[in-house]
Amino acid sequence: MDTEEFRKVGYRMIDYVANYFENLKERNVTPPLEPGFMRQRVPTTPNDDPEEWDEIFNDIEDVVMDGMTHWHHPNFHAYFPTGHSWSCVLADILSTSIGCIGFTWESAPSCTELEMSMVDWVGQMIGLPKEFLFLNKDNEKFKQHGGGIIQTSASECTLFTLLTAKRLKLNEGNINESDLVCYTSEQAHSSVQKAAMLANVLMRMVKTDENDSMRGSSLEQVIEEDVRNGLKPIYTCATLGTTASCSFDDLEEIGMVCKKYGIWLHVDAAFAGSALICPEYHSWMSRGFDLMTSFCFNPHKWMLINFDCSMLWVRDKDVLTKAFVVDPAYLKHDNQALAVDYRHWQIGLGRRFRSLKLWFTIRRLGVKQIQEWIRLTIDLGKQFEAMVKKDDRFELYNDAKLSLVCFRLKGSNEKNEILYKKVNNTRKIFISQSKIKDVYFLRFVTCSRLTKIEDIEFAWNVIQTCIE
Ligand code: PLP
């Protein structure tokens, strides 16, 4: 394929994806397929000779699109959103065409430095304490100072910060690895438990209160018990916006406890973090930020940024970057002492040029339009919540603080499980389910930037027609 052919096929692909979006509503949200369907659709062995682009294009519909759950369909209301904007699509074309692997400053200077600027831009947008920024004019005032990185997933951010907290403790010497212990709430995302398994650190799941929130007193009780038993607490992961019900741990209380026991406090705001760009949510969500050690959220969830873009900030970048330094000659460069080498901030060596997505999208939309998007989805959630409230066959699981609405039919869990299956089997809309302390409920969230109020009304109608 030469550049002329690329130009021709590239324009055709742009047309294809633009049409896909324009006509997305005509498709079902989910496909009626069984695992293994692809075996019937692609040959079992690769072709030896080149195929024409016409042939490849002709197969996209049948092989790919027909087997997709369409995340940007206006009637997709499951899980949490994943972002989409054309600016990101264009940025990804540029990123993959540059095709760099930005492990050190030398290997990709603008990839490294644009990322540093973008973590500072987004850090300011979400109102992080300025110690967490790179380019902070008050840096000299702080004994140490922070910075941030774009990773693939919140899971990796949790794992890397936990591994760092573990390394810090072990570096003190005379510590048994098996005595280390970390904490999270019973409502934390499964990735937090998985991080503890991967890091081989005992994890204690702290009980939550009636609002599914981890409180300082419950955490302290567990820590005290562990200390009495000779364990060494190293790390707590608190959540702002849990996956099951979008509840919020009490950061102020938890932060005070972590400070008292010298524990790393990591905050996972994977979904809810995007709301921090609106002052009305920042005002209460950021209480306790002055006490955290690291913070993560996923702009690729709710900030119109395409997957993958999970951002991690730390108060003291040296602690993070010096935990796992291996310095072979083939990676060394002359500017090492002056530059940020992101290879020290993550598990892998290679990394993509992800900051382009933020740079294009923030510039094209401006902060104000991104704030409007957050407010619009919260408002659509409120309108859905009002529909649920008006129907006395239903009840809310909790009060929606952001755009996730958790609701259920009054009565048994079984009734709700049947409703869930019937709704999703229509394939007209797609919602998800959850269960907390034996209460099963349905989750509804506005995900697609194509969703309008008529789609919310449509979804509510579909749900109502599925009640037995
Ligand atoms: N934390 C929370 C609160 C989440 O809701 C999720 C996913 O929805 C995750 C972590 C995991 O995110 P990731 O896929 O980026 O690892």
UniProtKB/TrEMBL annotation:
Its EC number is 4.1.1.28. Belongs to the group II decarboxylase family. Gene3D superfamilies: Aspartate Aminotransferase, domain 1 (3.90.1150.10), dopa decarboxylase, N-terminal domain (1.20.1340.10), Type I PLP-dependent aspartate aminotransferase-like (Major domain) (3.40.640.10). One of its GO terms (cellular component) is cytoplasm. GO terms for molecular function: aromatic-L-amino-acid decarboxylase activity; pyridoxal phosphate binding. It comes from Hofstenia miamia (Three-banded panther worm). Pfam families: Pyridoxal_deC. Homodimer. This is Aromatic-L-amino-acid decarboxylase. The modification N6-(pyridoxal phosphate)lysine is found at residue 301. Keywords: Catecholamine biosynthesis, Decarboxylase, Lyase, Pyridoxal phosphate. GO terms for biological process: amino acid metabolic process; carboxylic acid metabolic process; catecholamine biosynthetic process. The keyword Lyase applies. InterPro entries: Aromatic_deC, PyrdxlP-dep_de-COase, PyrdxlP-dep_Trfase, PyrdxlP-dep_Trfase_major, PyrdxlP-dep_Trfase_small, Pyridoxal-P_BS. The lineage of its organism: Eukaryota, Metazoa, Xenacoelomorpha, Acoelomorpha, Acoela. It is an enzyme of class 4 (lyase). Its cofactor is pyridoxal 5'-phosphate.
